[in-house]
Amino acid sequence: MEHNRIVLVTGASRGIGAEVAHQLAGPDTHVIVNYREKAKRADAVADAIRSAGGHASTLGADISDAASATAMFEEIASRFGRLDALVLNASGGLELGADPGYAMRLNRDAQRRLAQLAMPLLPQGGHIVFVTSHQAHFYPYKAVPKGYAAVAASKRAGEATLHAMRPEFARAGIHFTIVSGDMIDGTIIVRLLERRDPEAVDTRRAHAPLPTVDEFAAAIAQAATAPNPSGIVYVGGADYLMTA
Fold this sequence. Notes:
Blueprint lengths: L4 E5 L5 H10 L4 E7 L3 H13 L3 E6 L5 H15 L4 E4 L13 H17 L8 E7 H4 L11 H15 L2 H7 L2 E7 L6 H9 L1 H10 L5 H13 L6 E4 L9
Parallel strand pairs: 1-2, 1-4, 2-3, 4-5, 5-6, 6-7
Helix pairs in contact: 1-10, 3-4, 4-6, 8-9
């Protein structure tokens, strides 16, 4: 079946990625729900999209592994022949037992690799969206919760690496947008941070209501579909944007 748009959302088996997939899907858009190992969760996301009248499929790949990432894009090329938008949502580094280099491999190296693999499939007017947090985007100029520095540094490095690719994106006519959000209420990241540094989370909540998953996902979906998206979109955390 032909679709007007083909969209890949990484890390879409739960949380923000799943909600982005829901918001992007529709009668004219096929969303590819990427997952690393939670196939049942990914299937549930795709099933819900189809039940709502949209189009979706799942595609497993460990994006931190070069061969797995390459195979994923070969499958997309073989099945669809193109990709209209890539949402770089998957990230990590807070997992128990992760080796010291994992955060950089996932949050920097994998993001660059996925963008490079996607470019030949993206038409003029295509979109690449990198999802990050204020805690990473403003690193190291703003304090981060305890235990989050390695993740913040790696995501900041990933953003910088993609930013350096802007001339390539521009020559290809590809829109590139960074969507940065304050701590997002209801996400696994906030739950993990509440265990490690509850004071940091309480401070953010005391400043202003945290953005919801729906609100953050809506900003990401907008960046992935707008004809002329902004280069960067901020969601919540107005105090981060104030200059001294």
